[in-house]
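Justification of computing resources. Each target in the renewal requires a structure prediction run like the one illustrated here; the chain below, 145 residues long, is used simply to show the kind of job we budget for.
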Amino acid sequence: MMEPITKRRRILAEFLDRVWSGGDIEQCDAYLAESYSIHHDPGDPWDGQVLSVAGFKERVRLSRAPFPDQRFQVQRWFESAAGVAVMWLWEATHKGDLPGFPATGRTLRMSGATAYDFDDQDRICGHWQVTDRLGVYRQLRQGQG
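Resulting structure tokens:
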């Protein structure tokens, strides 16, 4: 039996598809609360920060720049009263430079889990995240020498 898709799960699925995978940064206005807290995201330059919607848009823009074709595929969904957590797979082509890593044109892959918080108006207002950034670094290092 398939579990019903809740309102928050639908909102998060659209947000991940349109903003993070699709690159439509202006859609942030439709999904985010006025204040977005990055509670825990080791290795992310914005770890521990509270962002406005404009700040979050800049985060997405800068994060997608080296990987404009990135795609997130959600593997598992978990929901509680506080929000929705997802386990995901990420794939992207390294098309733009990163510090110390000129664009390679290679496909990179990563996995992670993110727990998204929602406010009482069903706006996304923060996250806790763990990702395999070391795995991405190793993929970037392949072929350097």
